[in-house]
Design a protein that fits this description.
The chain has helices at residues 13-25, 45-52, 66-75, 97-106, 177-182, 195-205, 231-248, 251-274, 278-294, 299-308, 322-327; strands at residues 3-9, 32-38, 57-60, 82-86, 90-92, 110-119, 134-136, 142-144, 147-148, 151-152, 163-165, 172-176, 209-220. With 339 residues, it is of the alpha/beta class. The chain has a domain at 231-331. Strands 1, 2, 3, 4, 5, 6, 11, 12 and 13 form a nine-stranded mixed sheet that branches. The chain has a two-stranded antiparallel ribbon with strand order 7-8. It has a two-stranded antiparallel sheet with strand order 9-10.
Length: 339
Amino acid sequence: MTTAVVILNWNGENYLKQFLPFLMENTNVQNVEVIVVDNASTDNSLAILKRDFPTIRTILLDKNYGFAGGYNKALKQIEADYFVLLNSDVEVSSGWLEPLVNFMNDNPDVAACQPKVLSYYKRTHFEYAGASGGFIDRYGFPFCRGRIFGNIEEDKGQYDDVTDIFWATGACMMVRSSLFSKVGGLDDEFFAHMEEIDLCWRFKSRGYRICCVPQSVVYHIGGGTLNAESPHKTYLNFRNNLLMLYKNVPNDLLKYTMTMRLLFDYLAAFQLLVTGKPKNALSVMKARTDFNKNQSEFDEKRNENLLYSTKDNQSDIYQNSIVLDFYFKRKKTFKSLQL
């Protein structure tokens, strides 16, 4: 089986210099190719790749297509049994790839998997984007084994078991290439954020599994393109989350789910406003406005998802509200949720 480790780069020259040597040193596995896809960078990324990493294959895109569009365009040009979507700000550990490849080889019903993701700066703790596997609640709010909202747990081995999850992080996701194409890849319209959850939801609705394999470990800086306080990141997260729900929630639950999300989004905007983040609060409202305006454009995708769904995913979705559990019931850790 062949594997392509694909890094999508946009003005990440410092990350390329810092992390590519670790990747090349720790990816000494047969039938593996490392590829850098450049999303029309304007920094010195291409010069650095040519000078310092001449053996690495590069794919040049004519403009910045974002995370979703960039990967979609690049992966169509790559032949491999498995794709690893790897962020440029990730440091891989020794032997990181073998557990993922072996697990996928042994489990043909698994569409995608992820390693355990720890913080680059605080290596005793999980990292926000993915931790030890992703989940969502019934209203679309994501959380992880090891991270609920901003509460990030220390890694004490409490989530070292291989387990089924709802979504695998785009920071480091191994995906079966044939299934990636079969379900239509990432959604270009998302540009960035939530696209990997939407993809995994489509995998699961078609009866495939998503798993976390913590025997593989990587270290992620996080926020390399947009920091956590960015109003634009807030906008993309809220807009794309609404689009994801609209595309994937079954007909009998859609009206109730979207009504509850309206209430939660107003609550989020109010919380951002009173904590001194008025631009972020406005981003939430703009996300809702744009979702309402463009919702009908996603009717075809919604109909297609429902048409090809072979499994009701409600048993895989946390049926309580993670917002209420976290802020009002003070459930701060994944184990306290009793999933």
